[in-house]
Amino acid sequence: MRHRDLGRTGLRPSVLGFGAMRLPVVTTPAAAGMGAVERIDEAAADEMLLRALELGVTYIDTAYGYHDGQSETWLGRALRDAARLLYGDRRDPAAALHAEVAVATKLPVWKCESPADFDRLFAEQLERLQRPSVDVYLLHSLRRETWEQVRDMGILSWAERQLAAGRIGHFGFSFHDRYEVFTDILAASDLWDLCQIQLNYMDVDYQAGLRGLRAAAARGLGVVIMEPIRGGQLAKNPPAVSDLWATAPVLRSPAEWALQWVWDQPEVSVVLSGMSTLQQVEENAGFAARSGPRALSREELTLIARVRDAYRALTTVPCTDCGYCQPCPQGVAIPQILEAVNDVRMFDDLEGQRESYTWLEEERRADRCTACGECLERCPQGIDIPTWMARADAMLAPQGE
Ligand code: SF4
Ligand code: SF4
């Protein structure tokens, strides 16, 4: 396993992180008056975690909300069991594991209505994780609105107290908004030790993007990458893309190409993979062992750029995500919605996009468009946005609504 510095934290975790958000699950069928219940397949997840630790993974990422709240509870128990198996000869196996492995979790900022919620939620998380402290604590999924809300409630002074008391080892945020919001958040505090951003070879200019990666690293932050395979989309292969991969000087799976591209960026500290099978753990650890900053050749990088172009040629709407159409007076999230429309064809992923669309707040969805036309003159691509909002609603809205 290879390791990289996590910014200025002093931690040097494995370049592959274990993401505890897509664990294997078992579904209990719907019973009288009850819907189907999905719970973590703990035996399978335990086996994956243990194998990841054996293979040298030393960064584990969870969050309050993953698996409807089950992820933290599972991880707290599973790490104790793994510690007994791996360090059973030590006086305190849990402490021995803790000395080697960093656990990161996240505050669900959208659940915070008053400063008292910071303490309440954090205490609940420590109890789930069976720990008196957490190595890394992130504000989860910041967007401008959620950031301003928790900032105004005093989250930074709260975090400062937890850091001073040793209940948080390192503090940061995960992010899902535009680059300009990212730089505003970066500049808002010197408390940030790290951030977690989405990055893959398709999303170089999306959200924080490559510019955000470099801006964060330049400020000394560790950068943890999520969605390196774009939720599994880049592991699939439309024919135009698989023909290109077949010309590569080195044969790799599409998933490995995606991961190696992220590890090729020297500013990246850890790449999270939300693994769901033991095989993925084994494969990804093997990919990580072959990774390195600036390890891809010019020829390989050119090939990845051609794959990106091949995907983009499948674009339905010519939206460049420039954001000039924002804000919409109705609050419609135009660029995100058009991206989802494009992804349906690009990745042959209607079901996946419909599911992602349910995560978009109802007041930002396409059906809120009143066809006022304000955005039309602001769009440099001349996109007929109101018409596309109507099409997107028909395509993506939860079925049966
Ligand atoms: S046409 Fe629709 S999307 Fe465009 S500004 Fe008006 S309400 Fe917003
Ligand atoms: S202005 Fe046009 S191109 Fe830019 S984000 Fe909006 S819809 Fe896309």
Task: Describe this entry's structure for a reader.
- The chain has 401 residues and is an alpha/beta fold.
- The chain is globular.
- Strand 2 (25-28) and strand 3 form a beta hairpin.
- It has 15 helices and ten strands.
- The model has no long low-confidence stretch (mean pLDDT 92).
- The chain folds into two domains: 16-305, NADP-dependent oxidoreductase domain (TIM Barrel); 334-396, no CATH class.
- One iron/sulfur cluster binds next to helix 13.
Give a concise summary.
This protein folds into two domains: 16-305, NADP-dependent oxidoreductase domain (TIM Barrel, Alpha-Beta Barrel), CATH 3.20.20.100; 334-396, no CATH class. The protein contains 15 helices and ten strands.
Keywords:
2 domains, two-stranded antiparallel ribbon, 8-stranded parallel β-barrel, alpha/beta, 401 residues, 13% strand, binds iron/sulfur cluster, globular, TIM Barrel
Layout of helices and strands:
Blueprint: E1 16-19, E2 25-28, E3 37-40, H1 42-54, E4 59-61, H2 70-87, H3 93-100, E5 102-107, H4 116-129, E6 134-142, H5 144-152, H6 155-165, E7 168-175, H7 179-187, E8 194-198, H8 209-218, E9 222-226, H9 239-245, H10 254-263, E10 270-273, H11 278-289, H12 298-312, H13 334-346, H14 350-357, H15 385-396
Parallel strand pairs: 1-4, 1-10, 4-5, 5-6, 6-7, 7-8, 8-9, 9-10
Antiparallel strand pairs: 2-3
Bound molecules: iron/sulfur cluster (2 copies).
